[in-house]
Amino acid sequence: MNSLNPFRTIWIHTRETVHELIEHNRPVMMYLLILLFGLNISLERASITNLADSTSLLAIPIIVLLLTPIMGFAVWFFGGLLVYWTGSWLGGIGTFKEMRIAVAWSTIPFALKTIIWVLQVILFGREMFAEITPRIDSSPLLTILLGLITLIDLIITAWFYVILSKSIGEAHNISSIKGFLSIVLGIALVLGCLLFLILVFSLIR
């Protein structure tokens, strides 16, 4: 276990890596990964909601840093709980603790995405968090760079779900396909609950 480098091995040898991490977890590093995960979620949220259009540039990093631990630990905990449930419906036998470990270490790709975010902020600045992007739109080089970075980000995100599916499969002792299905079921469950609440509130009104 001491020779295992999860930052390298989890990309290809996911199940073997997660098996070792479940047996010999590294809590400090795991919590740092969760914080990086939360940082990425908070940055993406700030970008999608065009936060720069409604607040000052100085306030953006403050808001992002405040949201980082909340988003990271909330999504990790409840996401782990969801796939613990849905995976058990598919025959999984993993414990909630094992699932939390597996999900946490599956976020390693987000450590790489953090580097991409730093690069984007350096290159595009405020326009990463704004609806109108005149500097990017007027520069073919910046437009190409943004497209290339977005493509790389999509590839990393897709591989994250591959790693997550395999990690859930290992923790639950089921196939990676069932691990992926547990993610789909979890998302469907959340969407179903949201739609139900929207329907209830619309009927009440």
UniProtKB/TrEMBL annotation:
<feature type="transmembrane region" description="Helical">
    <location>
        <begin position="28"/>
        <end position="46"/>
    </location>
</feature>
<dbReference type="InterPro" id="IPR006977">
    <property type="entry name" value="Yip1_dom"/>
</dbReference>
<dbReference type="Pfam" id="PF04893">
    <property type="entry name" value="Yip1"/>
</dbReference>
<feature type="transmembrane region" description="Helical">
    <location>
        <begin position="105"/>
        <end position="129"/>
    </location>
</feature>
<keyword id="KW-0812">Transmembrane</keyword>
<protein>
    <recommendedName>
        <fullName>Yip1 domain-containing protein</fullName>
    </recommendedName>
</protein>
<feature type="transmembrane region" description="Helical">
    <location>
        <begin position="58"/>
        <end position="85"/>
    </location>
</feature>
<dbReference type="GO" id="GO:0016020">
    <property type="term" value="C:membrane"/>
</dbReference>
<keyword id="KW-0472">Membrane</keyword>
<feature type="transmembrane region" description="Helical">
    <location>
        <begin position="183"/>
        <end position="204"/>
    </location>
</feature>
<feature type="domain" description="Yip1">
    <location>
        <begin position="10"/>
        <end position="197"/>
    </location>
</feature>
<keyword id="KW-1133">Transmembrane helix</keyword>
<feature type="transmembrane region" description="Helical">
    <location>
        <begin position="141"/>
        <end position="163"/>
    </location>
</feature>
